[in-house]
Amino acid sequence: MDRFEVCHAAHERLPATALWHAGTDTPLPVCLFLHGGGGDQDTLLALQPLLEQAWQERSLPPLSIACLGVPPFCFYLDDPARGEHWQSAVSHGLLQALQERFAAWVSTAPAALLGVSMGGYGALKIAFDQPSRWAAAAAIAPMLEPHTRAERVPLRNRFHYPPAVPQRLLGPARDPELFSADHPVTRARRSSPSTSTRAAATRCTPTMAPNSCTARCGSSTSRTTITCCAMPITSAPPCRRGCWRGYAG
Q1: Nearest to 124 by CA among 113, 135, 133, 132
Q2: CA 174 to CA 152: how far, in whole Å?
Q3: What is the pTM of this model?
Q4: Torsion sign over Cα 39, 44, 48, 52
Q5: Residue 11 per-residue DSSP state
Q6: pLDDT tens-digit profile of 150-163?
Q7: What ranges do the domains of the chain cover?
């Protein structure tokens, strides 16, 4: 385990934590972990016992996994007009810092993304923004509102946000253009229209594990695997497993 800082032009020095599998002579693949709302870079340490057990049992291949400390409710938003660059701090800053600091044993191959809740939202929108940059993405209970148009999001999907969220993105008076552009489904449709529908209309089937949905999307030039657990992405009634069928936006 190592703690280090990521230098960012807009946000100066940001704290980061990294874990990795020891005892391998080959460069380790990289996974960026995006923490959820209220978390920080040390949220990753809660996973350390599970990761070490999985490595010991050889159920998980050796890898390096790192987490950047960003504001607890920033939603990994890039909003240059207000000096916010949290998406790029992870997708570029953290990845570059990891590959430079641990150049001797970290692979430069496309990295993976993993996020929970707010971090799941971030992982999905980063992956769909530039699919060719990433090997895979997984979102655990991601925060996804049930429409890509701000005015179509029901009040029941808004009431729980704390005041610290980006107000232009998720506040009472949202910026419709920013909300739509930042939404993972908008980015999926934009990045690969022929395949994004499959990712946005994943159905829960009896063969899936409880509370989980998986979508694989890509094209002949890029391929990204997206895993979403209990993802509320439509106004349709949920199935028995808690997964929402289709996408209304």
Answers
A1: 113
A2: 12
A3: 0.80
A4: positive
A5: T
A6: 999 998 888 789 99
A7: 2-229
